[in-house]
Amino acid sequence: MKRVPILSTILVALAAAAMVALGFWQLERRQEKLALLRELAANPARPPIPFPDRATGDELLFRRATAMCLQPVGFETAGAGNAGFRVLAHCRTGAEGPGLTVQIGTTRDPEVKPTWRGGLVTGTISHAPSTTPLIARIVGQAPQQTLLLVADPPAPGLTANAMPSLDSVPNNHLAYAVQWFIFAGIAVTIYGLALRSRVRSQTRDRARGT
What we know:
By secondary structure, this protein is an alpha/beta fold.
């Protein structure tokens, strides 16, 4: 009588190995994020630049920038913690590319109707709100976040924006790595307990049959 199911053991071993590999990958990502954070820390002191007119990485976060909003084509609000709600304007720029999103200010009124008509905007580059599910961020499959321009000064009638800082850039890769290692350990432990119970049951069955 077989005491160890070969197929199940192989599947559990492969799953645990995959989790461990994901844990080490997250540790590598952590080193990359630390290097990026060191670069971003110097951005606020660098000269202002035109807001990028095409998709780019996070290396421009916290740079001062300028952009021309030819016409707002829509507004939305997003939570801003103690500040209430941040008001986002989606702009037509007249150039090819994804357009421009400007955080034109904050408000306590979730039903605010902005009257801002656009124009030249100065401010700081930050991330637009993300709707990526948590599991996608844990496994590292989250798409690159869209950039926006946090206006300074704000649009008339709105409260000034809190300027973005390094605190808004998460560096959770160590926690994610630990989670994957724990998942692997739990999987192996549970399977080991199941095997021990199986072996004991088989031993008792054989003892009864003799």
